[in-house]
Amino acid sequence: MLNIIKRSAAALAVASLVSAPVLARDLVINFDDPNPAPKEGFETAVEKFKAANPDINVIVNITDREAHKTAIRNFLSAEAPDVTSWYPGNRMAPFVNAGQFEDVSDLWEAEGFNESLASTQSAMTIDGKQWGVPYTYYQWGIYYRKDIFEANGIDVPATWDELLAASAKLKAAEITPITIGTKFLWTAAGVFDYLNLRTNGYEVHNDLTAGKIKYTDPRIVDVFNKWKELVEPGYFIENHATMSWQDALAPFVQGEAAMYVMGNFAVAAMRDAGLTDDQIDYFPFPEITPGVPRAEEAPADAFFIPSNAKNKEDARKFLAFVAQPDVQTEWNATIGQLPINSNSSVGDDKFLQKGFETVSTAQGLAQFYDRDAPAEMAKGGMEGFQEFMIKPERMDAILERLDKIQDRVYK
Question: Which CATH superfamily, name and number, covers 21-137+300-360?
């Protein structure tokens, strides 16, 4: 009888082990955008990942971008998550150089990312190694009021001279040619980048942001002289230094301004303000120097594994997951941006279609001035850009000051 009881107890113990749930492994992810569409895209992807990996307990922390930019400097050193969102290019460099991001070159090799994510490989690479996995990017360019152009007999400008002629015609019709809000500085950097990319090309953009050439270099002086051709005739909206990029939408929506040098994320705000796709359209920034290969601004967002992460194995699974073609297709359809995986598909939205054509045929993709340049240089540079747009007569002094900042930053 005792043996029967023992055998029954053993059987119950085995049954208990078999039926007990497997203890989940925690995977902590910090994400940096609580706005409705980005949050939805992220959370939908997380739910799909959890369904595919029921043994992983995913814990997410979502904060706004400005708070995330401050917090990351602390949590990478203290209580690091297993995965965090951040930015490619020079924005990741301080953390890479400090040994705070994990090398994921093996993941790129194993998953074939060198081919499927080739468009952003250079932006994810430092010292020949890849440090994260991108999941989205978006085009910049010129968004314009198609109805205003048509009413004033203006064709889409393909060259610098045509852009100046269109601006002059709009100005004569008492319509501000270009709206912009430079209160938070980075919008002016978008204009500068395009002027430099179209005047000098992608290599000069990279050399400047890497500190290899001076701001007083004749090539950069030429960029500012081109910029003067828009600033001095009053082709930019007045009082732009008091406006955010959202504030600068108002004259565009009201028909008081006709063009906006901006990223594709602004389209949702244009539509929300009541503009229809019959009223708004997009064209790439026009050619300035004939023969210079066309490069584009296409900032990417990515995920990284902190070196202090506790669960690097599952973190790698998550990074591999967010790069899958179907995941990137669905995620970017939700947020209105472009998938990076070359095997993904782009939705029917005309701006995404035009953006995909623009970036996929570019000879180079810049990550934006404040991502490609170190933080201190980017801050000084963007302050100089804004000052120049208000006081172009200070150009020489501004460029000399930027050289001094560059000497200090890159020493």
Answer: Periplasmic binding protein-like II (3.40.190.10)
Residue 319 φ then ψ, to 5°: -60, -40
- The answer to whether residue 5 scores a pLDDT higher than 50 is no
Q: What count of residues does the chain have?
A: 411
pLDDT in tens, 248-279: 999 999 999 999 999 998 998 899 999 999 99
Topology of 140-297+374-409 in CATH?
D-Maltodextrin-Binding Protein; domain 2 (3.40.190)
Q: What's the token pair of residue 15?
A: 């049954």
* Chain segment 162-217, per-residue pLDDT in tens: 999 999 999 999 999 999 999 999 999 999 999 999 999 999 999 999 999 999 99
In 3D, which of 300, 317, 328, 345 has the Cα closest to residue 89?
300
> Which residue spans of the chain are classified as CATH 3.40.190.10?
21-137+300-360, 140-297+374-409
Residue with tokens 């904060």: 63
